[in-house]
Amino acid sequence: MNFVTLNNGVKMPQLGFGVWQVKDDEATDAVAKALEVGYRSIDTAMIYQNEKGVGGALKQSTVPREELFITTKVWNSDQGYENTLRAFDESLERLGLDYVDLYLIHWPTPQYDEYVDTYKALEKLYHDGRVKAIGVCNFNIEHLERLLSECEVTPVLNQVECHPYLSQTELKEFCAKHDIFLEAWSPLQQGGEVLKDETIQKIAQAHGKTPAQVVLRWHLQNNSIVIPKSVTPSRIEENFNVFDFELTADEMADINKLNRNERKGSNPADMNRR
């Protein structure tokens, strides 16, 4: 496993396991398999409605708590200072944990203009030692700029949609300038069209790897944190097996050229669903 050091000194596995769209009753088995394979970072959220299932796997696991890195998120309808503190307590109870390693704002929902107050609640949780690190999801540059000017603690990361067809180069450069990691959700692109791309397939053949492994390797070598999701045991193993090869500079450049600025998910500027 590769680890990155966040801007507050906390170490985080660069490859994690995501459970978006995993049903609560499937999450326990999926997370248990991921832990067995070697994953130590698990990414969930209140809105996924599977925190209990994730917590069940953590309770059953023999992996020491200090070796795990657990992320969850505050949903849009729970934003605001007091609401966020309450939502955090509820997530912690569902997970069956005393603390989480990373707590994130799920979306800025700019129409409601609550994300600064929400982030200040995250700062309190951080200062109280109830979370090891705090950050955001789906924040554009203007949202990050406001946090940096109005809050005290710099987010450790910004979790956004990112894959070869949406490389997020400008956002990533801004984040790097402020010592904020970019974490890729939907790293293999929802629907996986990118996995059929001729460039990806050719590189996969050259390394004796699958297209998914090549794309995950591209993320890792771009210094991004990545959280692929699967409930299929063989895929969970496949996605973890990406540390025994390296893409060449030319291969990285060829994949970088595939960018289309093509989103599958919502644009944070106008995503205000609660």
Quick overview:
With 274 residues, this protein is an alpha/beta fold. It is built from 10 helices and 10 strands. It has a domain at 12-190 and 224-230: NADP-dependent oxidoreductase domain (TIM Barrel), CATH 3.20.20.
Using brief descriptors, characterize the structure shown.
single chain; 274 residues; TIM Barrel; eight-stranded parallel β-sheet; two-stranded antiparallel sheet; 10 helices; 39% helix
Characterization of this structure:
This protein is of the alpha/beta class. It has a domain at 12-190 and 224-230: NADP-dependent oxidoreductase domain (TIM Barrel), CATH 3.20.20.100. 39% of the residues lie in helices and 15% in strands. The chain is built from 10 helices and 10 strands. The chain has helices at residues 24-37, 51-60, 81-95, 115-127, 141-150, 169-177, 198-207, 211-221, 233-240, 249-256, and strands spanning 3-5, 11-13, 17-18, 41-43, 69-74, 100-105, 131-137, 157-161, 181-185, 225-226. It has an 8-stranded parallel beta sheet with strand order 3-4-5-6-7-8-9-10. Strands 1-2 form a two-stranded antiparallel ribbon. α5 links the parallel β7 and β8. α3 crosses α4. The longest helix is centred in the N-terminal third of the chain and has 15 residues, at 81-95. The radius of gyration is 18 Å and the shape is globular. The chain starts with a strand and ends in an 18-residue tail after the last helix. The mean pLDDT is 97.
